[in-house]
Amino acid sequence: MSKVTLVITPFGETFRLHSEVPINGDGKRSITRATHVEYDNDRQLWTVALPTGEEIHTNTTRASALEWERKYCENLLRKGYRP
């Protein structure tokens, strides 16, 4: 079973990373991309970039880039980042 980091604010808002774990319950959802993972054909690397285009990580495998992205975004949520 996958672990999911769920942040609940004092106002009742919830934030979490997207995963294949279903979200049950009522209410409107708002989904915001925190990063983009894409393959750089010229460098032959997977890149993780912020929406501004700033590259923050590269890796030779997609799986490793996605794992790094998940850890990075969970850390942001734990430190108080809100989209």
Question: How would the blueprint of this fold be written?
Answer:
Elements: E1 6-8, E2 14-16, E3 36-40, E4 45-49, E5 55-59, H1 62-78
Antiparallel strand pairs: 1-2, 3-4, 4-5
Task: Kindly describe this structure.
By secondary structure, the protein is an alpha+beta fold. Helix content is 20%, strand content 25%. It has one helix at 62-78; strands spanning 6-8, 14-16, 36-40, 45-49, 55-59. The strands form two sheets. The chain has a three-stranded antiparallel sheet with strand order 3-4-5, with helices on one face. It has a two-stranded antiparallel sheet with strand order 1-2. A hairpin with a 5-residue loop joins strand 4 (45-49) and strand 5 (55-59). The longest helix has 17 residues, at 62-78. The chain is elongated, with a radius of gyration of 14 Å.
What tags apply to this protein structure?
alpha+beta, 83 residues, 1 helix, elongated, 25% strand, two-stranded antiparallel ribbon, three-stranded antiparallel sheet
